[in-house]
Structure formats: C-alpha cells, structure tokens
Description:
By secondary structure, the chain is an alpha/beta fold. It has one domain (97-377): Alpha/Beta hydrolase fold, catalytic domain (Rossmann fold). Helix content is 21%, strand content 21%. The longest helix is centred in the middle third of the chain and has 15 residues, at 191-205.
Amino acid sequence: MLGLALVAIACGGGSGESPDTTSRVRANAQNEPVVRAADPTAAAEITEAPAPTAEPEPDPTPEPEAAPTVAPTVAPAEVPSSESANTTGPLSSGCGAGVASGTTTVRFNFEGQERVYEQVVPVGYDDSTRLPVVLNWHGLGSSGVEQLAFSDYTALADAEGFIVIVPTGLEDATGLNSWELAPEQFPDRDDLAFANTLLDQVIETLCVDDTRVYTTGMSNGGYFSSVLVCEMSDRIAAAASVAALSHADSCDPSRVVPYIGFHGTNDEVVPYDGSGESSMAPGQTVPLFALKILDEFAEFAAEAGCDIEPRVAQLSPQVTSFDFQNCADDVQMTFYEIEGGGHSWPGSAVSLAVSEAIGLGATTDEISASETSWAFFQQYSLDN
C-alpha cells in the first residue's frame, strides 16, 4: 500500500484536498520557533507494533505557563556552512572515495547477512569536506525507503548539506522488519552491533564528520534511538525520537546526550498516556504501551541532571514544549507534545497526506519534526 502511495508521489499525485493555512512552528539554527506557511503534498503508509520493554515511572505533572506570542514573520537564521563546522581534524577514510551526490541503495554484509540502507548524499558533496550524518530508523513493518519518504529528510539534507542513512531492519518472527530494543530480544541478531558496524561502514565510504553523528526514528525506530542514546553515547552527538521513546532501567550513557522528542496525544499505536492498549494489539495490555511517554523522557532529563520540573510553553494551538532546564554540560532536553496528533511525523508532507486516512491519526502542520530536529542537532558535536 505504501509502495502505491509512493508511486503516486513520484507521479505528482496528491490527496486532492487543500490543507488549511495554519502556521507551522519550525526552528532556526538557534532552535527558536520560525513560522512558515503549511506545504503538504503526497502519501505513504507505515505499519507499527513495537515490542515490550521497561515498567513506567511516575508522571510529571507540570502546569503550562502562559502562551508566548509567536511572531508570524520571523526570518530563518543562517545555517552554518559545512566548511565552517566540519573541516577541522583528520579526514575520515571515506574522504576522496568519489561517491556522487544523490539517493542510492547500499548493500553490505554483516554477520553473514546482506543488509541494506538508503543513502542520501546532498547536492554539492565534494568528498573532501566532512559532513554530518543523520541515522534515521524506521518503524515496525516499514523499511528504509518508506522511512525516508515519511520523514521528509531528502530535500532538507540537500538544502542544509548533511548525509542521511536510513537502514532496513531484519524480519521478526511475525515477518515484520524491526529493531531490537533489549539485549537478546532476538537471539539470532544484535542490532546494537549492527548500528555500530553501519556507522563504521558509512565512515569508511563517505567523507563524514564522526563527531557530528545524530540519530532519529519513528515508532520502533524512535524507541531504537532511545537505545542508542543509552548504548552509543560515545558516538551519537544528539538524538530525536518521533512517536515513541523509552528509558531503560539499565541506561548508563558515558556522556550526556542532548535529546528531543515528539508525540501526539491521540496516538492509538503508541499511547501517549500509557494506557497499555494499542490499535496494533486489540484487547491486550502490552507493558511497553503502559509507559507514559512524557515520564520516560523526564527520566532521560533526570539522568542529564536537569531540573525536575520543566518549563512548559504553548508554542502554537497544537504544540506544547516541555523544556527541562539547567542540564549537565548545558545540553538541551525538550519534549514536544502534539495536541490531537496521531501516530505520525509532524510536518511531513507524506504524513499530512495519508496518516489519518490509513488509521494512524492526524498529523500537525504546526511544527516540522525534521526541521526542528536538524536545527537542534546543529548545536552539538562530540567535541562540545
């Protein structure tokens, strides 16, 4: 079904409906809100049903502050060029390899199996300038191709000059592509080892800044980004999760990882309120879905030494931010609650076009998860 939707996109098809002109809260290079006109287009389908993990923690109950006024015509700040941020230090082994710009499917062998990932090399790539890398993990039952479309990262990577790597997971016992969320969840594979090897592969084949590697993902991939925050903090400079995240009791990062999250209050796949019930498992109570999402994020913030009570601000009618302040190393830890949002990717043209129609719920056009995440990522490297 998603394949057909993507064909419709390629052919210029759309939903035929004109979206309203609600302003979109985005972020500039200083991570300040920037308002732009909505711009949705075409279509995709994602299948989700993440696997169980830890028990829930108490729910933080901050009271919202008065809503700040978002200026309707704030100009986007200038984004630092690749040259200003990424050219110091030794070149990675992939510099000078002659890889061309564009989106390609890459295959390599890992533990005796062929693994596949989508690789976005931005326009203007010259293989002598080290670029940042965003690792982008799909949801349960999806693929790298689908996640790349759903998260709307290709045009952003071209515009801002960074590399995007979107791998496809292996099938679980039910035949759905997935990511391992706990050690030995799948005895026949080790997705944490795969993530490390994948990053090694990217460094060996492309000219990258290995101090500026970031992780993001949707649903099962959002959970997996949480895993990487805990288990690959020495390699991940910052992280963002969409429509799922959880904090494992065993989480023990070697450094504080700046982290942001996005989640809709009407998500029926990964329930925001920790109801335990999911549209993917009707009539069942799943431990993973009994976790209150904001509580889980608050655990990451507590681990980072942030204030217990976040600063709460209404950024737009649908978007509320929970900013945990005074964190160690002055890192940012911010959670974005999407009022009425479903199991969707905020601001994505594909998600705006089809998520509600295929049962994943509404997508807000008031904030772009991809643009907000990239503006956030740009502030951090392993060196600061």
